[in-house]
Amino acid sequence: MSDADHATPAADQIDGLIFACKIGADGEPRTAGWVEIESWKPDDGMMWIHLDITAASARNWLLGKSGLSAPTVSALLEKESRPRAFRGKRGYVAILRGINQNEGAEPEDMVSLRIWCDGHRLITLRDKRLFVPRIVFEQMTVQDIGPRDAPSLFGELVEKLVWQMEGVITEHSDRLDGLELKADESHSSTLSRELADMRSEIVVMRRYIAPQREALGYMTADPPAWLPDDLRPTIREAADRQQRYLEELDALRERAIVIKDDIANRLNEVMNKNMYVISVIAAIFLPLSFLTGLLGINVGGMPGVESSVAFWITCAVMVILLVAELWLFRRLKWF
After folding, report:
1. What's the pTM?
2. Which of 172, 156, 171, 168 is CA-nearest to residue 237?
3. Low-confidence residues of the chain, pLDDT below 50?
4. 71-110: buried (b, 16+ CB within 10 Å) or exposed (e) per residue?
5. Do 30 and 4 contact (CB within 8 A), yes or no?
6. What CATH number does the domain located at 3-266 have?
7. Which long-range contacts (CB under 8 A, 24 or more apart) does 331-335 make?
């Protein structure tokens, strides 16, 4: 292929066309523009079109020139897309989610990838930047590896979207291991907040993975007719892996709850112990405080006012009372 074929198209910033790739009879992938897209016919080979649906021109093309039915286009352009898969009038639709790897974004804030394919032409749509399509595109056009037909491309995109989640789940697991070690060494309330934040991140990620598992399950149970038998295990493996990721997220969430409860129990034990010590001290000094308060009232007739040894007698009585209290508390096993 020539350098021009390898170059990333300049359409990234115009007309909603991020890139397009065409593979003819010679099996060589070449970048394409709107002219090739609009003149394409099934006999010309495979055509992959990747669009940014936030661009009005991309939405207008889908509605007016793509050849897709109105219900299919409406489903592809939904603002809040839930992962699902279904058969359209002219092709197969898969709306999936991938890890958000954009700078400053949270990975669990997953980005949607909407896929339509009829076995010859494959259209992918995104509203936020997603790295998986770009990786596959560069493998095909720059590295000269990867899929060479629409069914293989469909399977590759689904597989990479799912595999991409493994790193994030592993990161969550390692992070939870670290928090568990910290919990054994200290009982800081900061750990509870970190665990709560982690649980919320897991819940957000699970909110997308659970319906995506169902979508992949549907694709496995009722695959499109154009998907050959040798590619169906790829979809099945992706569905199994998605199920495993979901189970791992559930396990992480349960571990986070157990660790948080353990920290709370330890903090309660420390607090109860401190309160117990304070209660014992209060119980020891309560009779002494009563006695000194009684002898300190400023009224006539107080015994020992004229005696020079009354103060020492009072101190001796309080010492005896203190020893008696300590003996009693010891006998009652209060300490």
Report:
1. 0.76
2. 156
3. 1-13
4. ebbebbbeeebebbbeebeebbbbbbbbbbeeeeeebbeb
5. no
6. 3.30.460.20
7. 334/280, 334/283, 335/280
